[in-house]
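Narrative of accomplishments. A recurring question from our advisory board has been how the design workflow behaves on a single, concrete structure rather than in aggregate. To address it, we present the structure tokens for one chain from the evaluation set, followed by the sequence designed for it. No filtering or post-editing was applied between the two.
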């Protein structure tokens, strides 16, 4: 089971990139996809992956703001995931 999960996690980057690129091609929008969960090969520690597809050139301030918001969301997601998985592991 752990091998299957690790294998699926290893394929996430390419899968996410394919989905984001497809959405961008269809809409022309900027795409941000964030996923996270326990990483079996790292003793179940929580990890997050973020894929950002920017479709136009930002000036420096807009680019900084975009990535600051993305990273803030990533930190919040990681915290929520840690709490969620901690609660689930207490139920086992």
């Amino acid at each position: 089971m752990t091998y299957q999960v690790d294998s699926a996690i290893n394929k996430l980057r390419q899968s996410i990139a394919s989905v984001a690129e497809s959405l961008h091609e269809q809409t022309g929008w900027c795409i941000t996809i964030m996923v996270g969960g326990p990483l079996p090969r790292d003793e179940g520690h929580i990890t997050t992956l973020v894929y950002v597809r920017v479709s136009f050139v930002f000036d420096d301030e807009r680019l900084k703001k975009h990535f600051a918001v993305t990273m803030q969301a990533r930190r919040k997601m990681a915290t929520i995931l840690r709490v969620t998985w901690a609660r689930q592991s207490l139920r086992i």
